[in-house]
Amino acid sequence: MKPVPPVIVIGMSRSGTTMLTKMLDELGLYAGKKLTDNHEAVFFRQLNDWLLTQCSGGLENPGVIRYLLEDPEARALYGGFVEFTMKTPKAISFLGLADYLKYRTPAALDVPWGWKDPRSTFTLPVWLDLFPDARVIHIYRHPLDIVNSLRTRRRKGLSRLKDKGGLSGALYKYFLVRRHIGTGKIFTDLRGASLEEGLLMWEEYMAEARRHVSGLGDRAIEVRYEDFLADPIPVLKSLSDFCGLCPAPMEIEKTAGGVNETRRLAFLKDPELKEYAIEVSGRLKPYGY
User: Fold this and answer.
1) By three-state DSSP, how is residue 55 classified?
2) pLDDT mean over 198-206
3) Considering the entire predicted model, what is its pTM?
4) Strand, coil or helix: what is 113?
5) Helices 195-216 and 120-130: crossing angle, nearest 10°?
6) CA–CA separation, 169 vs 165, rounded Å?
7) Alpha-carbon span 107 to 263, nearest angstrom
8) CB of 154 within 8 A of CB of 223?
9) Which of 99, 145, 106 has the alpha carbon at shortest distance from 5?
């Protein structure tokens, strides 16, 4: 059978990319064998991390990828290296051993497949070089719900570094040293500590994602998180068609049942966030908020 181009889910962290990808996975989109807790294919996340670190970038400062993208020679060579990597046993983490022996590379998959990773919002040009017919789903969410989620994640991450005292505390810190020092693993994301910095990061992701959506025409689709929560069935039906999936109506209804509508515009319950939303309303209005 003819290889099927991937579906790439983009959008800033905490925008609903995990929820959306899990649901598409349930409806038949192959999202990978080895996944993180956020339903990110470890293989493609590692490749995205590698691409970003070549420019000293990461999840919170992905814009520096432009130094790679604007260098034609480097872009071609790095893209070629990524393509070669997809043919190595490294790809077993995405395909599983049996499918690796069958396909040898994700690029040869003949079923609907893809991955989600916020980093792909910025590394997407490299992936489009390799998969010119790839389809892209961009999901976005009100920035203050995202910022609030980032601040919560930051507090949890930093709490691991607080002195717990005693032998157990020392052993735990020794474990953290082994896990984090020299491995590239981070404790938590720090940029979203302030409302303003979190909003700036959201604006960067939105600008990049919408630039891609605009350029891809009917090969890209955009989903507003709040609209999805309010009425998930027609959105899932549209996305299933977009991804080349053929779930039965009952399957879509069952999957849509996992939507938690209470997460829609949750920031309105927080007086500080509500006040800030009014303060920056002029910056939110172009995005429909």
Assistant:
1) coil
2) 95
3) 0.92
4) strand
5) 20
6) 5
7) 36
8) no
9) 106
Which residues does 257 contact at the CB level (< 8 Å), separation at least 6? Answer: none
Q: Phi first, then psi: give them for residue 7, nearest 5 degrees.
A: -105, 125
How would you class 163 by CB atoms within 10 Å of its CB: exposed for 0-12, middle for 13-18, buried for 19 or more? exposed
Cα–Cα distance measured from residue 199 to residue 205, given in angstroms and rounded to the nearest whole number: 10
Nearest to 117 by CA among 256, 20, 199: 20
CB 48 within 8 A of CB 130: no
Q: Residue holding tokens 């910022």?
A: 147
Nearest-angstrom CA–CA distance, 218 and 213: 9
Yes or no: say if 114 and 244 are a contact pair by the CB < 8 Å rule: no
Q: For residue 236, give the H/E element and its range.
A: helix 232-243
pLDDT at residue 187, as a whole number: 79
Contact present, 226 and 141 (Cβ < 8 Å): yes
